[in-house]
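Q: Got a minute? One more chain.
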Amino acid sequence: MAYDGTLKTRIRLTQDQLDRVCERHVHFMEGRPGGARANLPFFDLSGLNLSNRNLTGAHLAGVILRDGKLKGTVLDHADLFGADLRGADLRGAKLFRTDLRGANVRGANMEGAAMVEVDLRDGTKVTKSSIAETMVVGFQPGPADLSQARLVNTDMARAKLTGSFARAADFTNATMSGARLERTDLRDCNFIGADLHGADLTGADLRGANLDGAFMNELDLVTAARTDGEAAAIRELPPLPVANEAETAPPPSPEALADLMKQHLLWLGSSGKVGRQMDLTGLNLEGANLTGAVLTLAIGSGVHLRNADLRGAQLQAARLDGADLRSADLRGADLRGVTLDRAILIDSVLDGANLSPLAIHSAERIMRASLVRARLAGASLAEANLRGCDLTLADLTGVNRTGADLEDAILEGARLGQ
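A: Always. Here it is, folded:
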């Protein structure tokens, strides 16, 4: 829904209403009738019970869950940007690659939670795409706040906490290998027995922190602040750059895109003698209407195609590794032999799409469709042809696979759980 210029107010749900939302979300993930994604941005759910619910990929940006009960809740890939989780019970919760930028989890109990690659960076450094998301009454996301949170035995491998505030948090026996902790306020934290191998502590404030028994390289502490003088010197440094999902290039004009398409068709029709191969590398085509577009053999590493309409598009042997196709519509698209390694296809719709091998008769060889390490959480692959598709280490959590043909597909290391 387009932003109408008015300030938004909080909506309060009852426990029964919330239970129905959760049930419809599970039906949605399983492809059952009556399903609908949990879409509760900025709702007031404080004190309610979400324990053991599966909310993979749910949209909960700015939600209030103060003192909420989320023990064992699955929140993998969920959007909790700027959420208020103060005092919440998240023991044993699953937050794989969950967006918690700018969230407030002060005093929350996250003991034993699985938080691999969770994003807890400073929310003030990120601009969300929807204007409405910054126009809610009382919604002003700042640095993620983990102060006094209980993170004992959590798995935070490769977690991102750059610029966040975590004073007096308890990280006892936590796994934080490869975590990004640059400029993070870690004063008075407890790291007894924590695994900090490979963690980036550049500019982190560790004054008063207890590192007894922590597993780490002492050299990692060279660039951290342990004294008042070191902390003062770090404060004088320029701010660290933080990746901003909104900082993509402006989309090409319709005329420029039409010219790219024309040149590509000439290139295909002449076997490369005239025209130019389509190169979408890094382009911003968010929301673009590419229904039925001929993108065979196109290249586009890192292209932004979020919410794009690619129904019936021809993408045979296209190389779109690292592409952002979140919520894109690829129903009936021809993706034979496509390369989508490390692509983000969360919430995308690929119903009836063809991802089977492509026979290259001139070279007498077969090209597999490749989605190695692709992220498809919450996507729909109903009736899709995935014969022989390489899905090594892909994330298929909550994917609707009803009627999908996975014969001979490579699923080594893929996440298939609901």
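A: The first strand starts at residue 358 and ends at 360.
Q: Perfect, thanks.
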